[in-house]
TrEMBL record:
Dihydroxyacetone phosphate binds at residues 198, 232-234, 274-277. Keywords: Glycolysis, Lyase, Metal-binding, Zinc. One of its GO terms (molecular function) is fructose-bisphosphate aldolase activity. Pathway: Carbohydrate degradation; glycolysis; D-glyceraldehyde 3-phosphate and glycerone phosphate from D-glucose: step 4/4. Belongs to the class II fructose-bisphosphate aldolase family. This is Fructose-1,6-bisphosphate aldolase. PROSITE patterns: ALDOLASE_CLASS_II_1, ALDOLASE_CLASS_II_2.
Length: 328
């Protein structure tokens, strides 16, 4: 059944676990997420970005999610809009049937340029007012997401519009977080604690301190009722990179956030963990290998099945590691 994200995260907080929020764009990701949730008995957060709506088209995306609810009626599903760039964007998603929206006012309407605190409060407050009237949950974001190692926001070209960020810009201020929640009444808050989007988070193998666990603790202590969200939570498993590169790919050396560090974050208040890149890597690795090993094959269902299986494996592993398994 479709439920609100607030309800789902309240349960996660009460029982001390985290829920992976996977991005969806197509049928294969949808199947992977739902079959993994079914097999591990996990609640599901499906999120769609503006890019996903552009790729699949809003009606297809909406019906893909509704189809998931229809086929797996016993699994609770939250349908979340990822990184909305304005209250208008969030409003259109609510009209489309989403049960949760993210108003990312940490960036301007271009989705790139860091915005002022006052702008962030204003657009987020307006979104909450509208969403809560419809029973829809809201996630806000405070701080500039960026790698503590590289200082980069992790956009595709490796150079965000913000350029290289300073260390204190990369960590959400706990006092400001408390003020922000008081002013906006968001249900969940995405915080900057050292992660960045995409595959290029860290240039060196992690040594256990990619995240600022200390900062998570400080923020959680001030806003215990607000569910903390960790964006940029892909682990960039080396096995997928190797499989891609062994079959014609050319992905340079790169590292993500170790699962154990995310689990530590969950221990200190993180409830929603956004994962997109890991499913992209798994899918590409599986497809590259399948086509390399079966050069005469041309039925797309064959390589897409390999894609689904690889992504499903990642989903199951995250449901289990984050403690969501057994909580559907
Ligand atoms: O936060 C970004 C997500 O990974 C979605 O990426 O905008 O390419 O769909 P996208
Ligand atoms: P990754 O790029 O680390 O998977 O992060 C995804 C994300 O934060 C989506 O909002
Ligand atoms: Na989001
Ligand atoms: Zn994100």
């Amino acid at each position: 059944a479709l439920i609100s994200m607030r309800q789902m995260l309240d349960h996660a907080a009460e029982h001390g676990y985290g829920i992976p929020a996977f991005n969806v764009n197509n049928l294969e990701q949808m199947r992977a997420i739902m079959e993994a949730a079914d097999e591990t008995d996990s609640p599901v957060i499906i999120q769609a970005s503006a890019g996903a709506r552009k790729y699949a088209g809003a009606p297809f995306l909406r019906h893909l999610i509704l189809a998931a609810v229809e086929e797996f009626p016993h699994i609770p599903v939250a349908m979340h809009q990822d990184h909305g760039t304005s209250p208008g964007v969030c409003q259109r998603s609510i009209q489309l049937g989403f049960s949760s929206v993210m108003m990312d006012g940490s960036l301007g309407e271009d989705g790139k340029t860091p915005a002022s605190y006052d702008y962030n409060v204003e657009v987020t407050r307006r979104t909450v007012e509208m969403a809560h009237a419809c029973g829809v949950s809201v996630e806000g974001e405070l701080g500039c997401l960026g790698s503590l190692e590289t200082g980069m926001a992790g956009e595709e070209d490796g150079v965000g519009a913000a350029g290289k960020l300073d260390h204190d810009q990369l960590l959400t201020d706990p006092e400001e977080a408390a003020e922000f929640v008081k002013a906006t009444h968001v249900d969940a808050l995405a915080i900057a604690i050292g992660t960045s989007h995409g595959a290029y988070k860290f240039t060196r193998p992690p040594t256990g301190d990619t995240l600022s666990i200390q900062r998570i603790k400080e923020i959680h202590a001030r806003i215990p009722e607000t569910h903390l969200v960790m964006h940029g939570s892909s682990s960039v498993p080396q096995e997928w990179l190797e499989m891609i590169n062994e079959h014609g790919g050319e992905i340079p050396e790169t590292y993500g956030v170790p699962v154990e560090e995310i689990v530590e974050g969950i221990r200190h208040g993180v409830r929603k963990v956004n994962v997109d890149t890991d499913l992209r890597l798994a899918s590409t690795a599986a497809v590259r290998r399948f086509l390399a090993e079966n050069p005469a094959e041309f039925d797309p269902r064959k390589f897409l099945k390999a894609s689904t299986a690889a992504m499903k494996g990642v989903c199951k592993a995250r449901y289990e590691a984050f403690g969501a398994a057994g909580n559907a």
